[in-house]
Design goal:
Blueprint lengths: L3 H13 L1 H7 L13 H8 L4 E7 L4 E5 L3 H8 L7 H4 L2 H15 L4 E6 L6 E10 L6 E10 L1 H21 L4 H16 L3 E7 L5 E8 L8 E2 L5 H7 L4 E3 L12 H6 L3 E8 L4 E9 L7 H32 L9 H15 L7 E7 L2 H8 L1 H17 L6 E6 L2 E6 L5 H13 L5 E3 L2 E3 L3 E7 L6 H17 L5 E3 L3 H22 L2 E10 L4 E13 L3 E3 L1 H11 L2 H18 L10 E5 L2 H5 L3 H12 L6 E6 L1 H4 L2 H14 L2 E7 L6 H6 L4 E4 L1 H4 L6 H17 L2 E4 L5 H9 L4 E2 L8 E2 L3 H7 L1
Parallel strand pairs: 17-18, 20-22, 22-23, 23-24, 24-25, 25-26, 26-27
Antiparallel strand pairs: 1-2, 1-5, 3-4, 4-5, 6-7, 6-11, 7-8, 9-10, 10-11, 12-14, 12-17, 13-14, 15-16, 19-20, 19-28, 20-21
Helix pairs in contact: 7-8, 7-11, 8-11, 13-14, 16-17, 17-18, 19-21, 21-23
The chain binds ligand C2E and magnesium ion (MG) (2 copies).
Length: about 750
């Protein structure tokens, strides 16, 4: 700020000093205070941006000097001897005259004189001029100081502040940007201004707000040698006052077309997070003052904050609608999208399908891989699903391993199934996660929209169809039909009730003897779980095991069955010949995939003290299908405990003999479906015979399941079958009935 007091005192002192007066006085014949000379003038001319004028009592000009040359020169022409009224424009005279009069009365007041030349504003202080300190006033002494710079700075500061307030008030960022570029151009009196925003890939800058341009906005490469690249690289504002003489950065083609001669540019955002560039251009060469660059930076800082907040908000919105692991939309997003489609569908005849995609046995894979790799696998799966769809389709992740797809604008139901198959086919190629290869299949349920169906209906139906696909053996696509609704409802009811059933102890085991068909001698029992439902009576495991298998509850159920069975087996006394009876317990695929299985079996053996060789674990071939290597590993660990392993329902699954050779299997249980045909179907008889002889060759026991008639039993004996199980010998019985059965042998 200009220090009025010291400046005034300095000058006033110089003029009133008797010695100075003596020296400068008398030049033009005037006496005393009003006399000026060359030294005084030279002194005053050294004061930049300053005007000093002396008027006599009649307000006639005596002298005018100062560093504000152009103005001073203009005024100086004919200044001497002319009255104030003649010198000043009429409006200014009217305003200033009272101040001069007051000065003549001995009261000095400052005022502002607006000189209409090149935007300059002069602030004048008008002082009474006396010959002696207490003497009469001889004239008026005026010190004028150019404050247009200060004015400009104030304008700049308030523009920044105003924009800042708007940003705080939450004015939409685009509006703020548009206003900012206009404000910069107006405040600095420039032709063009633009805000260039960094693209997401951080490789180029795109105009986000422009003022004064009339061509199409163009991208600017981040690394380029133009003003934008230069500003991003520099830690402070950059300016080029004249492209013709400053070669640090060249004008872009867009600038050249716009006829730009000078540019000032600043970075928007911090060095750590550069968001873009704010640039202002002039069509004529122009020096940019430091305060102008500060102003530009001030505006840029307000914009940076607004843009950063905007992107934080966008990020939050994105997070609220997307799954963080895969980046896919989440359920909320999906339902929104589906609802929008439905709203449009009401107006035309269009078709869409919702598909539920569930990765088969993902829990097992995940437990085996560990969560980090499991996550990687899910990411890979999600990428494949996404890639298998059209851009207009939506795929969302709605659960751990559950995806849901909306295919819009299909032509037919067949097309929906084609897409579903494409989705499951997309997973055919093995996945490579952390150098391991994994095979993944998925079950897909498809629900095609029918008029009137809501988003909820479609999601529920697709879900039901997916469950049906799982139940049908996984790795398949299933189209929803109305009959599935009741099926699905039953499924969900059971799932629900099963939880309370476990807590209430509604599950317990029955036992079916395994006998030598030749003499009916009991070799052991198979434990089979039963659900004694308070309202619905006994529920078969066939009705709830697949559900428990699906939702993972089988792990807990299985553990309880095993514990109860081993405890029970400990109560059986040996047969008369000292043979200890064996106990067979079923393990589901999900249990086999459970990393806690071996520990769980170990704990049960320990808790019940059952010798391991009395325990057989029954597994089905499907348990190997997903990951044979891992299954083998688990089976070997189980074998090490000393227990036997049996292959259940042999013949129904993959029936791969290689499994029998590959895995440490002690017995095969021929499935009931073959056994029941053994007496009247030569094909079934041939199969059973082949299995028995193969078992013999491999040194593996063979048990025939589901023997219901004497004929079957006889044929089996004829084929060399030594162990059988079936209603012919005994139905599964509750534990209480066992002692009697055992006693009968
Ligand atoms: P599974 O292991 O093959 O069990 C044999 C099934 O055949 C039992 O059905 C049994 O009651 C039935 N069965 C036995 N003899 C005959 C017969 O002569 N004729 C006919 N028609 N059926 C006979 P259940 O108890 O309904 O069990 C069905 C399946 O449920 C079992 O097949 C097994 O896979 C599963 N399961 C039962 N209990 C458990 C368990 O505790 N854990 C697991 N994971 N699965 C179990
Ligand atoms: Mg079994
Ligand atoms: Mg079986």
């Amino acid at each position: 700020m200009f220090d009025w007091t010291s400046e005034r005192e300095r000058l006033a002192h110089a003029l009133s000093d008797p010695i100075e007066q003596r020296e400068i006085g008398g030049r033009d014949g005037r006496e005393g205070a009003l006399a000026v000379d060359a030294r005084y003038r030279a002194l005053v001319r050294t004061l930049p941006d300053t005007v000093v004028a002396v008027h006599d009592r009649e307000l006639r000009g005596v002298s005018i000097d100062g560093g504000a040359v152009s103005w001073t020169d203009e005024m100086a022409t004919g200044f001497d001897g002319r009255t104030l009224e003649n010198i000043l424009p009429p409006e200014e005279y009217v305003r200033l005259e009272p101040h001069y009069r007051a000065a003549l009365d001995g009261h000095s007041t400052s005022t502002e004189y607006r000189h209409a030349k090149s935007g300059n504003v002069y602030s004048l202080e008008i002082l009474p001029l006396r010959e002696h300190e207490d003497g009469p006033v001889e004239g008026v002494f005026t010190v004028g100081r150019n404050i247009s710079d200060q004015r400009q700075r104030t304008a700049e500061q308030s523009a920044v502040a105003e924009l800042g307030v708007k940003a705080l008030e939450g004015v939409p960022t685009q509006e703020l940007v548009d206003e900012a570029v206009a404000t910069v151009a107006e405040t600095l009196g420039l032709d063009l201004c633009e805000l260039l925003e960094m693209t997401d890939d951080r490789e180029s800058l795109v105009p986000r707000g422009r003022f004064g341009w009339n061509d199409e906005p163009a991208h600017v490469r981040v690394g380029s040698s133009c003003y934008a690249g230069f500003a991003l690289g520099a830690a402070k504002p950059v300016a080029n006052g004249d492209y013709a003489s400053d070669a640090r950065f060249a004008p872009t083609p867009a600038l050249a077309r716009a006829g730009v001669a000078a540019t000032a540019a600043v970075t928007v955002g911090s060095a750590a997070r550069r968001l873009g560039v704010l640039a202002a251009h002039s069509r004529s060469p122009r020096e940019f003052q430091p305060h102008e660059l500060d102003f530009l930076q001030g505006i840029a800082n307000v914009l940076a904050e607004a843009i950063a907040r905007e992107s934080a908000e966008a990020e939050m919105r994105h997070q609220a609608l997307h799954d963080p692991l895969t980046g896919l939309p989440n359920r909320t997003f999906f339902v929104e999208r589906l609802t929008q489609w439905l709203a449009r569908a009401e107006r035309g005849d269009r078709m869409a399908a919702v598909m539920f995609v569930d990765v088969d046995h993902f829990k097992i894979v995940n437990d085996a891989l560990g969560h980090v790799r499991g996550d990687q696998l899910l990411q890979a799966v999600s990428r494949r699903l996404r890639a298998a769809l059209r851009p207009s389709d939506t795929v969302a992740r709605v659960g751990g391993d559950e995806f849901v797809v909306l295919c819009e604008d299909l032509d037919s139901q067949d097309e929906a199934l084609t897409v579903a198959k494409r989705l499951s086919g997309a997973l055919d190629d093995p996945f490579k996660v952390a150098d391991h290869v994994h095979r993944v299949t998925a079950s897909v349920g498809v629900a095609v929209w029918t008029p009137g169906a809501t988003a909820d209906d479609l999601m529920r139906d697709a879900d039901a169809a997916m469950y049906r696909a799982k139940e049908g053996g996984r790795a398949r696509c299933q189209l929803f039909h109305a009959g599935m609704r009741a099926w699905a409802e039953n499924w969900f009811t059971i799932e629900d009730e099963l939880r309370t059933a476990l807590e209430r102890g509604e599950l317990s085991n029955v036992y079916q003897p395994i006998v030598d068909p030749a003499n009916g001698r009991i070799a052991g029992f198979e434990a089979l779980v039963r659900w004694y439902h308070p309202d619905r009576g006994t529920i078969s495991p066939a009705d709830f095991i697949p559900i428990a298998e699906q939702n993972g509850m089988i792990v807990e159920i299985g553990h309880r069955v095993l514990l109860e069975a081993c405890e029970e087996a400990m109560r059986w006394s040996p047969l008369a010949d000292g043979t200890e009876l064996r106990i067979s317990v079923n393990l589901s695929p999900r249990q086999l995939g459970d990393p806690g299985l071996v520990d769980s079996v170990t704990a049960v053996l320990k808790a019940t003290c059952l010798p391991p060789e009395r325990l057989s674990l029954e597994i089905t071939e499907s348990a190997f299908a997903d990951d044979p290597a891992r299954a083998l590993h688990t089976l070997r660990n189980l074998k090490e405990l000393g227990v036997d392993l049996e292959l259940d329902d042999f013949g129904t699954g993959y029936s791969s003999l290689t499994y029998v050779r590959m895995f440490p299997i002690d017995a095969l249980k021929i499935d009931r479906s073959f056994v029941q045909g053994v007496s009247d179907s030569p094909e079934d008889a041939a199969i059973v015979e082949a299995v028995i002889s193969m078992g013999r060759a491999l040194g593996v026991n063979v048990v025939a399941e589901g023997v219901e008639s004497e004929e079957q039993s006889e044929v089996l004996q004829g084929l060399g079958c030594k162990l059988a199980q079936g209603f012919l010998f005994s139905r599964p019985v509750p534990a209480a009935a066992l002692p009697e059965l055992v006693a009968r042998g």
